[in-house]
Design a protein that fits this description.
This protein is of the alpha/beta class and about 240 residues long. It has a single domain, classed as NADP-dependent oxidoreductase domain (TIM Barrel), CATH 3.20.20. A seven-stranded parallel beta sheet has the order 1-2-3-4-5-6-7. α2 links the parallel β1 and β2. α3 crosses α4 and α4 crosses α5. Keywords: Membrane, NADP, Oxidoreductase, Transmembrane, Transmembrane helix. Pfam families: Aldo_ket_red.
Length: about 240
């Protein structure tokens, strides 16, 4: 029998970071429940996903199954979700998270990140495009989005909030925001190549981490470009 590549990637993650399990676009929906259950049974406790991956309902079913059979308790699982770019408008942030929670059948997530610092036109399409096929951006102040993220934390819908794929200019906008209530607990980036521009931000106390070297060693650079891990989380 042919061993599925995505299961090989899961085992590879286990070898590098024992407790981290990431879900990406390339995992077939039909296998998400099975793979997530397998990961939890193998000892994974940090599950990283996102609204845009469109698998949170399946992930939630797997988590609920493992809670019901006594393998884990909810507090044993550290679940990360991400705000997609079409929901950057402040009035869309909480509804987006609530939609994820409904799919997951969870009362809260442990970490909620702004997936990308590039707002896209709000609407039904995940990647809205114009007649030329170019993504349609939208003018939304990241500081306003961050303030809505803070309100999600205050409402108990997420324990911590952070960002993803931000450069130092984006981070400085948040850190210098008047009336900032919570600093981002982390900046999740997708490859080690991105870490260099964040050195000054690390000095500001923002934990940074990336999972890519393991895939590169195995010639799976394409997967590495999409793989990421958040470590050293601490509330600021």
């Amino acid at each position: 029998a042919v061993f599925p590549l995505f299961l090989f990637e899961i085992l590879l993650i286990a070898w590098v970071f024992k407790y981290f399990f990431g879900l990406f676009f390339q995992v077939p929906k039909s296998e998400v429940i099975k793979a997530t259950k397998l990961a939890i049974e193998a000892g994974f406790r940090h599950i990283d996903s996102a609204y845009v991956y469109q698998v949170e309902e399946e992930v939630g079913l797997a988590i609920r199954s493992k809670i019901e059979d006594g393998t884990v308790k909810r507090e044993d699982i550290f679940y990360t979700s991400k705000l997609w770019s079409t929901f950057h408008k402040p009035d869309l942030v909480r509804p987006s998270l609530e939609q994820s929670l409904k799919k997951l059948q969870l009362d809260y997530v442990d970490l909620f990140l702004i997936h990308f610092p590039l707002p896209l036109q709000s609407g039904m399409s995940l990647i809205p495009k114009d007649e030329q096929g170019k993504a349609i951006s939208e003018a939304v102040d990241l500081c306003d989005t961050w303030e809505a993220m803070e309100k999600c934390k205050d409402a108990g819908l997420t324990k911590s909030i952070g960002v993803s794929n931000f450069n130092c200019q984006h981070l400085e906008m948040i850190l210098n925001k008047p009336g900032l209530k919570y600093k981002p607990v982390c900046n999740q980036v997708s490859t080690l190549r991105l870490l260099s521009f964040c050195s000054s931000c690390a000095a500001a106390g923002l934990p940074l981490a990336s999972l890519s070297c393991a895939w590169c060693l195995c010639g799976l650079e394409d997967s590495a470009d999409r793989a990421s891990v958040c470590m050293g989380l601490q509330d600021a």
